[in-house]
């Protein structure tokens, strides 16, 4: 029986064959080179047979991309393939720049909703508000469109226009807006200010281009306001450019101080990164706030400042990413982001988690056995450890949200009610004096009456698993009454939970409402009022003796860093 092969497929496969043959002809292979050539040949022949004989039509691009992802999955989680369609998003992650309208968006039913316009960019200038529903873009309905597709429609070359049709709560009909796209540059320093009589605060959210410059400007301005200590907040900062972490550390330590070094297989890429500028202040007490979302460049700053005994690190153990990635261009405008080295902070420790598999649900470093942890010392002889992430000098756990509050957030009910509240109330005149009252909360509860708030507590889920196991092992019938009684006790009461966790719900409502008036800066300022880690940082900076005792430093010795 003869199998007919389409001529088009034969032509494609012939081209690939010729390319491979020309690549490997007349080469004297080493063992490793032979293995590479052998397995590439196996991969090609498998790919050829699939395309020729698989029962259904196959998409060559999908097959190859799946093969690439499968291959890279066997390595660390940060070595990734970047197809041409994702190049723009990748560039935004490294530069903080893109062409667009300058707004965060989210899904809301069938449509996409503006969740936050950035101040001083096209969406803000055009009067778009959080909660506005985008009905169409340039005459194309957004109903049913994926949020990534809507995002791509909004992005574009700076100075080009885009026409939006908007539906806004409290207003009849459709609102038309024509926006002119701009180059959007997201700030690294999202807020700074004087938070106590003599304590300054800087929230650094990214390490894209100019992170060091922005942090320097913020610190310089705060020093002009006669601050005597500083809180540098790196919580939730995923990192970015390595050189910017050096620039940020440089604000507090002298020129020519080693901050980080990189070591990998390609020795000419090994490097030692030292500070290159005069510092802003080597005396001022510094507390750096970190958590499980502080990664990469954030960990370089926190770890190096800890190793040099230049700052107290406070909060929760950091993410544990101590790998350097380099982008290598591939054909057809694709790229490979590849791990080329590990980085080491001044004490000599690497903050990369030693086991990629032992991770928490959010990807941060998980359990590390003692046998894999090594001891190091800081400049003053304090003991610190490797194994993954930076362990704070003072550990302060963040407050976890209740199940009902998480449900309200994930279902966007807090967001949606903030939209209603802002539309039905006068603009907030004094942000610091705003209060979400008991009467306001009763209106919120009424808003929730016909809304679905489904959630299950962990204890109830565990009980359900136990019942399944007991049933499978045939023990359930003998203990059915006890199980049912326990189910009733553990079953949550939505109305009761709305009262039990009222304070944290009001806190998030307050932050969301204030953000509609004062945007991201207002949200951060509002959140600090209820922030236990921030409060602890204030306490330690008000007690200088305790601060320096932990560092085993004196003010005079600090000046010699």
Walkthrough of the structure:
- The strands form five sheets. Strands 3, 4, 5, 6, 7 and 8 form a six-stranded antiparallel beta sheet that branches. A six-stranded mixed beta sheet has the order 10-11-12-15-16-21, with helices on both faces.
- The protein is α+β, with helices and mostly antiparallel strands.
- Helix 1 runs antiparallel to helix 2 (31-53), helix 8 runs parallel beside helix 9 and helix 11 (413-424) packs across helix 16.
- It contains 19 helices and 21 strands.
- The protein folds into five domains: 7-58; 97-185, PDZ domain (Pdz3 Domain), CATH 2.30.42.10; 189-334 and 341-398 and 540-558, 2-enoyl-CoA Hydratase, Chain A, domain 1 (Alpha-Beta Complex), CATH 3.90.226.10; 403-455 and 493-530, no CATH class; 458-490.
- A hairpin with a 2-residue loop joins strand 5 and strand 6 (140-141).
- The chain is globular and about 70 Å long.
